[in-house]
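Hi L.,

You mentioned the student needs an example of a multi-chain input paired with its predicted structure. This one should do, with 1029 residues in total across all chains.
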Amino acid sequence: MTLDLSQIVQPMTLLTMATGVVFGLLWGAMPGLSTSMAMALLVGISAKFSFPLAIAFLVGVFTGSTSGGEMSAVLIGIPGTPDAVPLAIEGYPLTRRGEGGRALGLAYVASFLGGWVGIALLVMFAPVIIGFALELGSWEMALLGLWGVAIAGNLTSGERPLKGWISGCLGLLVAMVGREVIYGYGRFTFNSAELADGIDYIPLLIGLFGLAEILRVFLTHESIHVQSQVRRIIPDWGLIARYWKAAIRGSVIGALIGAIPGAGGNVATYVSYDVARRTAPPDERAKFGQGSYEAIVAAEVADNANIGGALLPTLTLGIPGSAGAAAFMAALNLQGVRVGPLINQDHPGLLPYIYGVLVLSNFVMYGAALLLVRPVVRLFSLPREVLMPIIAVVCVLGAFGLNLSMFDVSVMFVFGIMGLVLQRAGFPLAPMVLGAILGSMVDENLRRALVLFEHQPMALFGRPFGLALLTLILFTLYDGIYRAGRVPDGYGTT
Amino acid sequence: MVTPTVDRRERERGPDLVAGTSLAALGLYVAAQAVTMPRPAGWHSAPGLLPFLLGSWLTAMSAVLLVGSVKRGGGAQLRRAVRQIRQDVTVRADRVWRMAFMLAGVAVYVYLLLPRLYFEIATFVYLATTMRVLWRREPLKIALVAGGVAVALTLLFSRFLRTLLPGAGSWL
Amino acid sequence: MRSWDWWGKVSRRAFLRLTAAAASTLLLPLKALAQWPERTIFMVVGYAAGGGTDIIMRGISKPMERLLGRPINVTNREGSVAALATDFIWKRPVDGHWWLGTSNYNKFLRVQGLHQTTPWKDWQFYKIASTIAAWAVKPDSPYRTFADVIEAARRRPGQVKVSNSGIGGIWHEATLMVEKFSDVKFQSIPYTGGAPATLAGLRGEVDVVASGVHEQIEHLRAGNLRNLAVFTAEPLAVGGAGSLPPVVSYVSRLKDFAPFGGSLTLGLRRDIDLEILTTIDRHLRQAVSDPEFTQMLDRQVLFKALKTGREADREAAATEAVTAWLFWEQKLETARVNPADLGIPRPEEFERWWPPRGYRPLW
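Structure written out for the whole complex:
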């Protein structure tokens, strides 16, 4: 399948992409509906689109829904997506002081700018990582997968990385179910023909980020019926110039965290927000929590820079940078694309095409967000008692549509309950998704590496990349254990 | 979400006790199963290798969780937590009940309605019942919303996306 | 109570509809045929995206979509030499909307205990194209010819690393034949598909790549790999890569088996309505001549070879006999089932055995 840039400017592609952005913005604006959820639910649907359109649509949704949470966060103080929590803390006080239009405008400008930094990082580093990844053997791939799960555990569980690691370990175990790829031996199948086929990670993703979220909404939130009156959204570029330092720092943090496996926009905004708070001058720091423009800039650039960053390891290594990126990877898989270091040989033109769509959707996002504020505000009063049952049906459809299998619906259902329970007990869910995705890769490569080095086991420790990764894993574990022992000062969990 | 992180460890002591115990048991079971898997060409390529490592690792981590919880008085905390949950159930009865209803609704939809009814009917029944109980608006409004959504979803999937719908069939 | 009235009505209406639906279900088999294909066809390919099977199946699905007037949705479900995909398709409805993209008539599955169905009895296969096995090394490898590889394996038994697309897969079989007839032992390293197996050679993880010519060709043309032999009796001329030496000139006893390679086969359950199966046959004959498809075959060094009906049944049974007994006698780790117990004849007895009792040709 070859793609080229000219396909981007086709009207159908542009239309599909714009539809995706608008859909994403609306989706993200509704409290309780997150980016990961949108992406997971749309994977099956995108499989019915032609290849270029599927990519355009999903990239649009990714960009749109990432910014979608901002509206409700600023205007009614309820974050539309988990990424927008810092924004809700800082933006809503401003709305109450009558500066909501300005705050929201600034948030959009920041998102727009952050998007560019993420894209730049992706474009610059993709060739570097691809070149490097071609040198990685089975042993290194196994270690890379394990490191991905470990670091995701560290970053998503605040001061209790142990819980992140347990979640990752559970995910890896999920991937162990079914026939393994080397001998075709059925592991943990309990004589069930369905389990012998293994557990697909998309229904798992829909369960953890869809159904569990629906249930959680009913458990934790009161119904909201808030009216917000904002007359004009002012994208104030002068204001962001004043906070250029926070903008640069935040977007770099966002992009880098995006590139770390499993850590998505929610982690990026928290870390960036936290760093901004600690480095702010005293008079600005005093405003934090009461409505700080600097904090808004820091959080929102990080949120959108995260998109490009998250796609980096996804496309070059096949290791998803966030749950949303994992769904994007699954969608590419359904279109017959195997992401990883061979992506340029196997699918010439695919990467430039994705870059192009990202660039355009960033523009569309900025424009559409400003235009859509008024109609979207009405969505906030859409009662969740109506919305959530409908989303539940969409969850069922999303899980079923992938393989047309009711078993997948059961998988979604079981992991929905499990997700709720685990999350209530303080376990982050992203490492589990990552584990479930990377499990069979780790398994296959680890065993092959051990066979390859059967006759000289010590040579495993003499390979420079392998050694580096091994050190990285140990450091990650050490860092987690060390941090767990300190007085916590970090960001929360989601 | 944005909870003060200082008391998180305190707050989670009770759940940790339960999680630690059950996950350690799971880890042991996995490791034990892994040992019984065949080894066609030595241990290093055996299907049970990674499951064994993961099972042991899970057991070890859960043990740490468990020990931490017990040391900080997880048992007493758990009893308090159970009391707390009981209280919650009464104080926040409405929310808990809604959540449970939502969950039961999905189960009924997936396991009872879909296998027996056409997709659009099953969906309508599910949506109408759930909305009726949770939303409490006049029946006509609910019927319109539920019916509209059921028809729209059916058309979207069967006509526009041309895929199969779950359920016993569809006449749209 | 009043508020539930509307609900009771709907429920009664639903019941009537349901009755109507049940009645129409009984009539369904009669009208199913006239409408086939009535929706998107799902093709599940048993190997990774980008491999030989995948390329062919995606290639042929394009003209088939046009001919059938329905989209064909191709997905990959790799692993265990396509056993996972085979199992998956076997359990789908018998309505002609579920196709299996596999290779070699699934001849590897029964002897390895991966799947129970019999290729010529439970499936109708359509062979679409074939491939040729090839061995290659990195340009700076110490092995200058294939003879060097055999010599090295003789000196260090079980230590020369040869990659393949999966234990008990087609390239593993090719390497096993070399082992059998030159009496050496390699260390076989399994990957999930020919493309990753080739990549492993590129980055020097294995000493020798065993995969298809089509999987090596781009790298041969670019000079990243150096071909040592192809499984043919005569040298094979390939555009951009020169003339590739036949393995028979190194291991002469292989000439009975050359040319050897994979058959890229489309499989459907045999109990699907005969008219659907023959309709597919008719359209396939047209689809393989599609210019775009033909061009793709040439570029990728794949060979058009349409075989269906009783021809395909026979080849399925014959190749399974060769493979099953080779695996069993070479004591492959994964050869779990004795071919004799499966009723698979020894290759030398095949001519007398075919057609076996209970065989029912479709066309």
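You could point out the following to them. The radius of gyration of chain B is 24 Å. DSSP finds seven helices and no strands in chain B.

Best wishes,
N.
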